[in-house]
Amino acid sequence: MVIAKTFENALKERRSFYAIGKEPVINDTEIQAIIADAVKYTPSAFNSQSSRVIVLFGAQHDTLWDMTKETLRPLVPADKFAATEEKINGFKNGSGTVLYFEDQDTVTTLQKAYPLYKDNFPIWSLESSGMLQSNVWMMLEAAGFGANLQHYNPLIDEKVREKWNVPAGWKLLAEMPFGKPLGKPDEKTFLPVEDRIRIYK
Question: Contacts from 181-189 at CB under 8 Å and sequence distance 24+?
């Protein structure tokens, strides 16, 4: 697989791309390999490996965003729904979506096995998911994709569970539509790094 960018460049150039298209950047098998590597090698507390992922392509991807749009329709005022519809259609215009879950059965098992740390396992689970989301995003960026991260959970949780036969213990945390970048992202501003890092020698 051809990687368009180094990890360093992908990290620096990663942005939320909302204008994405369906034209292939790499094939679906290569995308699956990227995501599989990210899932396999992302660290987790106690090597719990609690992260779970569903990847949707083609019509399945379209279905997710149609489902999301129809879930939101009765919740958004009619005079404001056009903007919501446009936003959701932008996600649908991409070529795929990564759904991120955390297996709550794994978290509960660890809480029972290590009661001294039971309050920390849900936190560590979220940290691991955050690392996975970042890793997938960087790897998609490096391969030439644009992506963004959405959080329509818990509004769509039950519909997602029913449509894709999601195990009861999997908790949906985020949705990442991706596709060929069709435009440039907004400029990103940064706080002074020296205000955020302290170094002692």
Answer: 181/17, 181/19, 181/20, 181/21, 181/144, 181/145, 181/146, 182/19, 182/20, 182/21, 182/146, 183/17, 183/19, 185/15, 185/16, 185/17, 185/18, 185/146, 186/15, 186/16, 188/15
Can you tell me the distance from the alpha carbon of 19 to that of 31, in angstroms, rounded to the nearest whole number? 19
- For residue 100, give the DSSP letter: E
DSSP single-letter state for residue 155: T
Residues 6+ apart with CB under 8 A from 138: 7, 10, 11, 14
**Closest by Cα among 133, 111, 135 to 122:** 111
Per-residue pLDDT reduced to its tens digit, 109-140 = 999 999 999 999 999 999 999 999 999 999 99
At residue 193 the predicted structure's pLDDT band, cuts being 50, 70 and 90, is very high
